[in-house]
Backbone:
């Protein structure tokens, strides 16, 4: 069921060193790319049809082609701020095979005519950052980085930059602000980074997995790569499966296989005697799907058609042991905590939603509050500066829609519990008063 | 222009205008909170301006979407209305809605927009966010974080406009709040602007808090006369009292900003210290008398002293007052001994050469020039609002800024080149720069050494200026062309300007002088100069300020007329002036405050009007005549000063023929050829630059004799002594000293010294020292500044720059 391209032999000891990576054919794709023209490399990436693996799913080749041509300062930024709950694919790639990412970045930079590159890695990934820094040093010594790479006219300087661990810094423009040393707040788009990004220069931003796929595409050829997967979602995808499954972990699959095969086939499904209640197909910001949707093919278009999204490719499975209100609360609190506060709907909407959920959980709500909560999610979606607000509103909205009865039952149960507590205490008090009188 | 459709209306609007602005052309209002074009590029944070554009699936922010030809925009659809109501609801959920006790109530965009675009109800029943409130953001500004809607206009102002970087956002999400870096008070020259920027009642003025409500105040437009920037202001008036000053946005003068002095020093209008009735000296004391008595006394004394009267005119004097005074002096008292400059006479030819329209730059030129050379002036102190304009030019339009001063400048970090020379060596520096600009112009090394400047830096500056582009502005301080060698310095300035083709009549290039006094330019043009009548007309030369002091000391002048001036505290040569005032039999003064010299020596004091009471015109350094209009009535027995001067003239037997303020303006326009035909109506609320009128050609042609290269006196320090420079901080003004809320900013006398000099003299910050030169000493407190050039010290006084001083511990 798996189709390992990126994860192939990932557990081989010492793969994080240049020696082992090269022995396994590492940097051959770079040599091949450098023997081609920039346009040819870009062409291969374009025909591969690979879509961004970070969440938005934008075609990588097209993104590079948006960069202005000519000898100006352009930047490549690798988004390694993998913060989406449930997503841990980039961590494994960077930790176990850092050179593949570096090789991919050199190829992408070559295609875009870029000479300066950054890896923005989240602060919590200390081990991975160290591995990357070691790998960058090795690559420099081996002349894969620096002036005139492998005797070509292509030069690239690469820095590894540690973020401070804010979810918002995974949003590409907030990442750029943070990288520039500012508060990590998203910028207004347009201008898009391809025109005005880092230090106002044209900037290509891609996810770790996307960039790490570049050597694979160059090695096998864009057309060959495009034969994998489906027409709209070519290639393979590393899927992080977590939650109530028996074998959580990263699985690389060809896009388009049935989701059930990933959740049950690869990850072993929920524990004995449990049923899938709901699942996030693409990280915690994707609208939730239910057991009815398990046969949806796992690719960009099919999941969108099913009302959700592939996102970062992180499946979180929740089984029937967990109340949906708890899931909603966990999700909403995360986004409230991570909202940067710049735009109104996200800042106020996430906060309001959490407060309503707390009231639902404590039995101080009525079913009317569910309508208000649903309306608040609608007022957030599409009205924010970046997608963080939507990232909370979409799953919460979908939970209310799909599990309204359970929410109502939860409200009723909590209310009854409260009532019981008050009636239990009230009589003795009244009795004492009576005695005094 | 492009044409687009908004709410079914076909509208034409300027290309690239943002939709919120373009919509106004069709009378459609799109509500905004965070959008403020003055703050630079839109940020799209508040989401209030969401509109629907056909062909784009998502709603777009009107503040950041430029209008395109054929665009079809909707602002009234259900979708847009739902989004607008949603944003208002979101903004109000944590807002305390304490409008009845909020200063902003009644003039609050949040109120207005909630009313106009909100849903009129809230579904929020959770506890609101709470903060401690109000807190003092500074002694001038109170912050109420509960009212804040986090549009972060104030933070953007601090970070991107005034560049003081003091305001920051702390925390994030719903816990975000506006704070100062490290909790320090937000004290900065332009901090008050955030009060006006705030679209809610989160930032309020401490002095204005709870003083009035919008429905019991009136706004009166006028001009601030506290510095040469002459910002346009609106006085908030309640019951004949000025309670607040707001900016009256004028893109060509102030860009809609005010400095804190201009914003808060209105308090000086209503303090007890003000002189509000005439006084005469009687038995050694100044005693209150009637106007009749004071005028008779002054008239008799001046008549007796006819031909032996000298007049000093302060910078806040209006054109009309200055004009009438010079008539009184020249026609009524047979004296041409009058001056409005701080020191040093410029030959008439140089006056004219510096004033010709071809050589004149405007304030907006500073923003759009290829390069600006800031020469011997510190804009933030001397003409504060220009500091913001220069920063804007550098930040948004890539102006190449060069700074050449003796004292480290706050603009140094923004400058491509910063160069230091010894205090008082401006002329020598210009000679060095001139030599570097002209092939064969002289020995740059030698000339630079004479100026105490680095020759390499001078060459670098010349290279920068030569290659910067054609639109070049030289912003220079009047102090550069003051002092005993004023003429030589002016000549050197004109030569450098000519070498850079700054004075060739090119639009966007030119000179801009920062006068020492507010109306320095207007007074010179009105004829308040010893060697020029109205319109720089040739007259028999009289005494300049320094010579008037000497004349009085030697008994050649027996009466002094001080119009808004106390030479003892404002002019160089304090000792000489003390002697002059002591010796003069008559000292007639128009004054709002009894400063030292007047308290001891004035024989007749007329109460001076404050700028909120004045009627008349003043002239901006770039030649814009602006109109002062009275906002309040005269307090006490104060009278219009043009009429007081006319009364004094009558008392000495001269009928000036003015019965109203506008008659004085008309006389001025008749007397100054290049003001010909100018009326108050033409000046109006926005002023008019005389250079743009046909009459401008009437300025007499400048005749300058090309001077041979003159080597300025060397400025290198010697014998371990230090070279004295002077400055005047923005806060060094009588209005600041008497305004209760600004008092804390009034500076103590500090001696700024370089770390190396301090070390050599074993001085530490805060030490009390005596600074002495030629037997005269002053006490000061040591302030060590790391950027100070070695060998120079700076004192906040009016002394002439350049002498060598000794510094020792007190």
Residues:
């Amino acid at each position: 069921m798996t189709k390992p391209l990126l994860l192939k032999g990932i557990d081989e000891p010492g793969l994080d060193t240049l020696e082992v990576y090269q022995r396994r054919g590492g940097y051959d794709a770079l040599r091949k790319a450098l023997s081609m023209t920039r346009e040819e490399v870009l062409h291969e990436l374009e025909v591969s049809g690979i879509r961004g693996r970070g969440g938005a799913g934008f075609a990588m080749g097209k993104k590079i082609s948006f960069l202005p041509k000519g000898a100006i300062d352009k930047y490549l930024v690798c988004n390694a701020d993998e913060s989406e709950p449930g997503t841990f694919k980039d961590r494994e790639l960077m930790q176990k095979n850092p050179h593949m990412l570096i090789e991919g970045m050199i190829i992408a930079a070559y295609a875009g005519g870029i000479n300066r590159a950054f890896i923005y890695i989240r602060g919590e990934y200390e081990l991975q950052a160290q591995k990357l820094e070691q790998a960058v040093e090795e690559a420099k010594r081996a002349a894969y980085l620096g002036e005139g790479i492998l005797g070509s006219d292509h030069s690239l300087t690469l820095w590894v930059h540690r973020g401070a661990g804010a979810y918002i810094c995974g949003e590409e423009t907030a990442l750029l602000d943070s990288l520039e040393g500012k508060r990590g707040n998203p910028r207004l788009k347009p201008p898009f980074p391809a025109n005005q990004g880092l230090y106002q220069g044209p900037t290509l931003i891609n996810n770790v997995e996307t960039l790490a796929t570049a050597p694979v595409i160059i090695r096998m050829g864009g057309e060959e790569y495009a034969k994998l997967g489906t027409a709209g979602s070519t290639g393979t995808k590393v899927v992080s499966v977590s939650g109530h499954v028996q074998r959580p972990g990263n699985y690389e699959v060809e896009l388009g296989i049935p989701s059930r095969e990933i959740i049950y086939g690869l990850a072993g499904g929920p524990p004995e005697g449990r049923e899938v209640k709901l699942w996030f197909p693409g990280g915690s910001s994707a609208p939730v799907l239910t057991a009815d949707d398990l046969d949806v093919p796992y690719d960009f278009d099919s999941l969108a058609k099913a009302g959700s999204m592939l996102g970062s490719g992180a499946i979180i499975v929740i089984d029937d042991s967990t109340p949906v209100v708890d899931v909603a609360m966990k999700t909403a609190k995360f986004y409230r905590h991570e909202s940067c506060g710049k735009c109104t709907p996200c800042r106020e909407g996430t906060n309001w939603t959490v407060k309503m959920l707390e009231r639902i959980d404590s039995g101080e709500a009525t079913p009317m509050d569910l309508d208000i909560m649903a309306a608040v999610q609608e007022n957030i979606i599409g009205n924010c500066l970046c997608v963080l607000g939507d990232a909370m509103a979409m799953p919460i909205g979908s939970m209310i829609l799909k599990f309204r009865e359970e929410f109502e039952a939860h409200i009723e149960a909590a209310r009854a519990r409260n009532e019981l507590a008050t009636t239990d205490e009230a009589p003795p008090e009244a009795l004492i008063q009576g005695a005094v009188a | 222009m492009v044409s687009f459709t908004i709410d079914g209306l076909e509208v034409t609007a300027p290309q690239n205008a943002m939709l919120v602005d373009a919509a106004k052309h069709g009378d459609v209002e799109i509500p905004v909170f965070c959008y403020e074009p003055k703050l630079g590029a839109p940020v799209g944070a508040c989401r209030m301006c969401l509109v629907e554009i056909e062909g784009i699936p998502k709603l777009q922010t009107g503040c950041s979407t430029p209008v395109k030809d054929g665009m079809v925009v909707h602002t009234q659809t259900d979708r847009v209305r739902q989004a607008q109501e949603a944003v208002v609801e979101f903004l109000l959920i944590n807002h305390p809605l304490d409008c009845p006790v909020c200063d902003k109530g009644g003039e609050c965009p949040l109120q207005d927009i909630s009313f106009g675009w909100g849903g009129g109800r809230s579904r929020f029943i959770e506890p609101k966010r709470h903060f401690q409130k109000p807190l003092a953001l500074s002694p001038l500004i109170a912050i109420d974080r509960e009212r804040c809607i986090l549009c972060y206009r104030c933070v953007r102002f601090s970070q991107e406009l005034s560049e003081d970087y003091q305001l920051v956002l702390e925390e994030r999400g719903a816990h975000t709040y506006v704070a100062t870096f490290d909790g320090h008070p937000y004290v900065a020259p332009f901090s008050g602007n955030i009060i006006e920027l705030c679209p809610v009642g989160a930032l309020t003025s401490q002095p204005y808090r709870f003083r009035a409500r919008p429905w019991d105040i009136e706004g009166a437009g006028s001009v601030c006369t506290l510095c040469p920037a002459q910002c346009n202001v609106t006085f908030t008036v309640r019951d004949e009292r000025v309670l607040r000053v707001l900016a009256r946005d004028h893109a060509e003068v102030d860009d809609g900003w005010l400095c804190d002095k201009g914003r808060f020093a209105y308090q000086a209008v209503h303090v007890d210290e003000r002189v509000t009735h005439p006084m005469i000296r009687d038995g050694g004391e100044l005693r209150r008398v009637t106007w009749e008595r004071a005028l008779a006394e002054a008239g008799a004394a001046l008549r007796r002293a006819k031909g032996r009267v000298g007049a000093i005119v302060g910078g806040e004097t209006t054109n009309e007052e200055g004009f009438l005074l010079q008539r009184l002096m020249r026609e009524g008292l047979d004296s041409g001994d009058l001056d409005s400059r701080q020191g040093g006479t410029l030959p008439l030819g140089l006056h004219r050469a510096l004033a010709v329209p071809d050589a004149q730059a405007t304030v907006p030129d500073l923003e759009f020039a290829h390069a600006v050379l800031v020469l011997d002036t510190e804009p933030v102190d001397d003409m504060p609002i220009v500091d913001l304009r220069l920063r804007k030019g550098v930040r948004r339009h890539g102006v190449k800024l060069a700074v050449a001063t003796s004292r480290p400048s706050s603009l140094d970090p923004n400058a491509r080149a910063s160069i230091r020379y010894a205090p008082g060596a401006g002329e020598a520096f210009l000679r060095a720069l001139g030599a570097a600009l002209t092939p064969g112009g002289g020995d740059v090394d030698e000339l630079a050494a004479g100026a105490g400047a680095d020759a390499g830096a001078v060459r670098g500056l010349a290279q920068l200026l030569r290659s910067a582009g054609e639109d070049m502005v030289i912003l220079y301080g009047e102090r550069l062309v003051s002092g005993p060698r004023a003429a030589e310095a002016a000549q050197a300035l004109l030569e450098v300007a000519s070498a850079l083709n700054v004075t060739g009549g090119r639009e966007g290039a030119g000179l801009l002088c920062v006068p020492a006094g507010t109306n320095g330019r207007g007074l010179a043009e009105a004829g308040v100069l010893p060697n020029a009548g109205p319109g720089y007309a040739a007259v028999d030369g009289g005494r300049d300020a320094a010579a008037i002091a000497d004349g009085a000391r030697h008994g050649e002048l027996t009466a002094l007329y001080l119009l808004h001036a106390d030479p003892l505290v404002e002019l160089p040569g304090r000792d000489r002036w003390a002697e002059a005032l002591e010796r003069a039999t008559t000292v007639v003064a128009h004054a709002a405050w009894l400063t030292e010299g007047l308290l001891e020596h004035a024989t007749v004091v007329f109460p001076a009007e404050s700028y909120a009471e004045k009627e008349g015109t003043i002239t901006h350094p770039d030649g814009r005549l602006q109109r002062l209009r009275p906002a309040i009535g005269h307090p006490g027995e104060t009278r219009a000063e043009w009429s007081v001067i006319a009364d004094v003239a009558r008392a000495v037997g001269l009928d000036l023929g003015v019965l109203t303020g506008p008659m004085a303006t008309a006389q001025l326009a008749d007397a100054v050829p290049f003001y010909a035909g100018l009326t108050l109506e033409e000046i109006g609320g926005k002023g008019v630059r005389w250079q743009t009128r046909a009459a401008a050609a009437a300025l007499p042609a400048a005749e300058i004799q090309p001077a041979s290269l003159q080597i300025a006196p060397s400025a290198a320090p010697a014998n371990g002594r230090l070279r004295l420079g002077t400055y005047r901080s923005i806060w060094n003004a009588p209005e600041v000293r008497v305004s209760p809320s600004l008092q804390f900013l009034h500076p103590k006398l500090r001696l700024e010294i370089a770390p190396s000099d301090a070390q050599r003299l074993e001085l530490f910050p805060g030490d009390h020292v005596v600074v002495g030169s030629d037997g005269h000493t002053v006490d000061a407190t040591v302030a060590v500044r790391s950027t100070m050039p070695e060998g120079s010290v700076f004192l906040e006084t009016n002394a002439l720059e350049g002498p060598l001083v000794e510094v020792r511990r007190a």
About this structure: Residues 619 and 625 of chain B are 4 Å apart (CA to CA). Chain B has a mean pLDDT of 94. DSSP finds 26 helices and 36 strands in chain B.
